[in-house]
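Backbone description:
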Amino acid sequence: MSDIGTAFALAFQLIVVLDAELVDIVGRSLSVSLTAVMIATAIGLPLGAVVAVYRFPGRRAVVILLNALMGLPPVFVGLTVYLMLSRAGPLGVLGLLFTPAAMIVAQAILITPIIAALSRQVMRDLYEEYREQLCSLGAQPRHVVLTLLWDGRLGLVTVVMAGFGRAIAEVGAVFIVGGNIAHVTRVMTTTIALETSKGNLALALALGLILVLLAVGVNASAAVLGGVSAYRRA
């Protein structure tokens, strides 16, 4: 019990003094995940809006596929990206394997379906609410998409936050394509796994606490924004 107490005390000390290694790992984690979220948002939000508004052959299949891809196994994504970026792979010439760029690609692939599927539902609910008004104004589908994206911006922020929460907590895919190289591709989740196996509980706990705080902060912000969005629509 005393060992656990000591580990927690050291973990808090690392956080308070802003240990250089801790700051480096947290900064890299945020950089990778935020970049992946921006890429996934740029793809997922328009895709979700288009699927919600447009009618086209196979639309139902696309909806089912997006919902199914929300549960993509991270290790499978990591393996696929690894094979694509390896020297024998079609993109091996880019030399991205075991770099932060490879980790960003893996995370973006994982969270794009999440953002697309959740934003489709948000857009679909808004479209059902405003359909008659938009039709009476003679709005074209592309104008409807832009209108719904703007009007549903608060709800969509919660969708993006959900994507960020998924990305920042990812370990399997980023470990495979990043290699967990010190000062290069080492992020919070992979460091927690490594340091725990080494018995360095202080650093692992410090990173775990930061990860929990980030998760709580993201979910609390999403809940507040979701409440604000619902209030404005009421």
Residues 23-195 form a domain with the MetI-like fold fold (CATH 1.10.3720.10). The radius of gyration is 21 Å. The chain is about 80% helix and 0% strand.
